[in-house]
Specification:
The protein has 345 residues and is α/β, with parallel strands linked by helices. The longest helix has 20 residues. It binds iron/sulfur cluster.
Length: 345
């Protein structure tokens, strides 16, 4: 190793900057002796930065974050922070949402390639054509979508507030729900609406195997199955409880059961186990042998990339003002309805 702790030769930094758009992150080798936890804490203070992390991030990142939450909680934190810099340990659409809410602040994402299969399943140009077929409908979009999709929407929702958002719309008003067809189908059943659904899905939540969950349930009859509403209908039908990431976390704390089979991204198990060390959490198995219930996009962020992005303030989320303003309106509507419904914030 030819570098001292904390000291990176300028030439390496220049090279990493040059390759940033191709690599998606600052690709600089770090001294393994560098205490990344302490360095990140130091950078937070020096730069008046807040570190927001999604529950699906790796445990090390969750442990160093100022706030850990699901999409709704993260958007609410981003809306009210007084920090000068927002470092978003999550995926691209989340950091974009923070930028939409905070145009004057610097918003950083450790790896620009941390995307989202669900957001990718709704290209805005195709959605525009789809929307034109239903001129009397309003559009409610799940927050897991691009800024361009948000700009085409009337209200944004998350899995925590979707029901309240839909209930706030008069019954006679027709609705398009995008981009997640599984969440949309679940909400149609719950609210009795007949929303038109865009045919998008999340690669992680679609992968759970009902057969394997059933087999697990036979082996652990005392376990309750809990699932995120992005899962397929058959998995949801087998669940004892369905809820957003935060609702699942609360449920495992409050319910008397000692064991849970968890059908959502595995990152949440870290907080579940921390909050209830006496309980057992079993990740629901995917329908093949790989670790496909880990979101490959979320897991692109690492402690090293996080440290480098805070130190050199790259990669940064930038956005055209016209797009930002158009995407802001439906997010603000969501935050207002959530607040009125008493959903945090
Ligand atoms: S878990 Fe699914 S919805 Fe969430 S970021 Fe990953 S791909 Fe997107």
């Amino acid at each position: 190793m030819d570098i001292n702790i904390g000291e990176i030769p300028k030439i390496k930094i220049a090279e990493a900057r040059k390759n940033l758009s191709r690599r998606g992150f600052l690709d600089i080798e770090l001294d393994p002796e560098l205490d990344l936890f302490a360095e990140i804490e130091k950078l937070k203070k020096e730069k008046n930065a807040i570190l927001l992390a999604h529950y699906y991030q790796e445990p090390d990142i969750q442990d160093v974050a100022d706030y850990i939450g699901d999409s709704l909680g993260l958007a609410q934190q981003a809306a009210k922070t007084s920090a000068d810099m927002i470092v978003f340990a999550g995926v691209h659409f989340m950091a974009e949402t923070a930028k939409i809410l905070n145009p004057k602040k610097k918003v950083l994402l450790p790896d620009l390639k941390a995307g989202c299969s669900l957001a990718d399943s709704a290209p805005s140009e195709l959605f525009k054509q789809f929307k034109a077929r239903y001129p009397n409908h309003i559009v409610i979009s799940y927050i897991n979508c691009t800024a361009e999709m948000k700009a085409l929407s009337d209200i944004i929702c998350t899995s925590s507030n979707a029901e309240k958002i839909i209930e706030s719309i008069p019954g006679e008003q027709q609705i398009i729900f995008a981009p997640d067809k599984n969440l949309g189908g679940f909400l149609n059943k719950k609210t009795g609406r007949n929303m038109i659904l865009w045919n998008g899905a999340c690669m992680v939540h679609e992968i759970f195997s009902l057969e394997k969950i059933t087999r697990l349930k036979v082996r652990h009859p005392e376990s309750k199955v809990i699932a995120h509403p992005e899962c397929e209908e058959a998995v949801l039908a087998a669940a004892d409880y369905i809820g957003s990431t935060t609702q699942l976390l609360k449920y495992t704390l409050q319910d008397a059961s000692k064991s849970f089979i968890v059908a959502t991204e595995t990152g949440i198990l870290h907080q579940m186990q921390k909050n209830a060390p006496d309980k057992t959490f079993i990740p629901a198995p995917p329908n093949n042998a790989c670790a496909c219930n880990d979101c490959p996009h979320m897991k692109l962020n690492t402690l090293e990339k996080l440290y480098l992005c805070m130190k050199y303030e790259l990669p940064e989320i930038l956005m055209e003002e016209e797009l930002r303003k158009a995407a802001l309106k439906p997010i603000l509507r969501m935050l207002d309805i959530s607040k009125a419904a008493g959903l945090g914030g």
